[in-house]
Design goal:
Length: 169
Amino acid sequence: MKNERDEQFHQFVVSRRAALVRTATLLTAGDAHLAEDLVQSTLTKLYVAWPAFQRADNPDGYVRRALVNALTDERRRWWRRTERPMAEVPDRAAAEYAGGDVSDGLRAALRELPPRMRAALVFRYFYDLDVADTADALGCSEGTVKSQTARALDRLRAVLGPHPSLALL
């Protein structure tokens, strides 16, 4: 039998899981499997901390921060540092970003950025968060968001050259 907390959490997952997977897919530069792992880890931690989440002034910021923390934790795992990725299996469909087209070149360039730098770009430009909300999600100062964003854009421009996706940034 479900209690009230379980029902509230269930409703949250039903209504927000797809958006969390989209965000995690961007944070992982298109790695759909890692994105699913991040969402699952985030939801597990969120369930444990459900009372704190419900008291949060900014629930969306709370979840964004939990996703970034899950990505940071994942990148610190010892086996992740020694794992060697293989080419994608050609008979499988590639994960699509449901919110719009993210070109393969841009996705590959994002993959080259450190996770927190990538997260700063995703929150600032894919989700159009302001500097303060991005700083809250990343757990850093607004100045750090500005410098990380500027450095990330410089790296992307160096890799991609004049690219239509970066023209407005």
